[in-house]
Amino acid sequence: MTKLGLDFPVFEPGWVWLVGAGPGDPGLLTLHAVNAMQQADVVVYDALVDERILNLLRPDAQRVYAGKRGGRPSSKQTDISLQLVDYAKKDLRVLRLKGGDPFVFGRGGEEGMTLVDHNVPFRVVPGITAGIAGAAYAGIPTTHRDCNSSVTFVTGHGSSGDVPDNINWAALAHGSPVLVMYMAMKHLRRISAELMANGRSGDEPLAVINQATTPAQGILITTLAKAADDVERVGVEPPAVCILGKVVGLRDRLNWLSPQDDVKEVRTVPFEQILELISTPADPQKD
């Protein structure tokens, strides 16, 4: 298929494409994603896929909801994966549309392995992940050479719904100046306690960004020690991504969203306190 003077791959019948829909803003879709959406016969989509994105699908495409939300009735991952196989075996063009990036805490790898096991050909279309885009839309760079030279992505809960038991909290607390935490809201109190118990400062700034890149985006600026209480007090709800580190303090200068974007912000830590943390030299052992 040729559009915009570019050659795009043809979505063949019997194939499954694992496509990242990005964090919410339709403008952050890739051209490959839009190309897939215009060709797909059946679309199996997640709860976090924005309605405006679904409106870009081929009008006659069959839509199949396969939302997975923590604490709510959800489709089982095994069933979703096998559903993709069943549709592909019917010689349909199967689009698995996932929020963010399929291979970043999106379980796209599990679905891909199932397709391999059943000899179903597939293609992966990466998407912009919420941990990067949400931070950027909040005016927070995930890396800045005056603050950090590394960043770590971590999930707040595993397949069981609990905090993963294989996290090395000491290494996480000391080894990465900036932590981007996905799906951490439910266990934010425990996560904060574990990080502080292993040497992370409770005064370190933390941003909670919910509904990232959408018109409903909200931003809570707090600290590691106060985060859980502030989230409960303000009533922040998932989906949300949490950013921990000095880079959070750069928001005051890099907040590029205009007033008409109507972003809700709650600040529970004085900017002067964050500024002081930013100006503190980085610990070489943490960078």
What's the CATH superfamily of the largest domain, by name? Tetrapyrrole methylase, C-terminal domain
Looking at the overall shape, the CATH architecture of the largest domain is 2-Layer Sandwich
> Largest sheet, if any?
6 strands, mixed
* Overall number of domains: 2
- In order across it, which strands form the biggest sheet? 8-9-12-10-11-13
- Strand tally: 13
Which percent range fits the helix content? 25-40%
Average pLDDT, rounded to a whole number, is 89
What does the radius of gyration come to? 20 Å
Distance between the termini: 46 Å
Order of helices and strands: EEEHEHEHEHEHEHEHEEHEHEH
- The number of helices is 10
Detail the poorly predicted runs: none
Q: What is the CATH top level name of the largest domain? A: Alpha Beta
Plain-language structure description:
The protein has a 6-stranded mixed β-sheet with strand order 8-9-12-10-11-13, with helices on both faces. A 5-stranded parallel β-sheet has the order 5-4-6-3-7, sandwiched between helices. It has a two-stranded antiparallel sheet with strand order 1-2. The chain starts with a strand and ends in an 8-residue tail after the last helix. It has helices at 31-39, 51-54, 77-89, 108-117, 130-137, 169-175, 188-197, 227-234, 251-254, 271-279, and strands at residues 2-3, 6-7, 16-20, 42-45, 62-65, 94-98, 122-125, 151-155, 178-182, 205-210, 218-223, 240-244, 264-267. The model has no long low-confidence stretch (mean pLDDT 89). It has 2 domains: 2-128, Tetrapyrrole methylase, N-terminal domain (Cobalt-precorrin-4 Transmethylase, domain 1, 3-Layer(aba) Sandwich), CATH 3.40.1010; 131-286, Methyltransferase, Cobalt-precorrin-4 Transmethylase, Domain 2 (2-Layer Sandwich). The protein has 287 residues and is an alpha/beta fold. Strand 1 (2-3) and strand 2 form a beta hairpin. The chain is built from 10 helices and 13 strands.
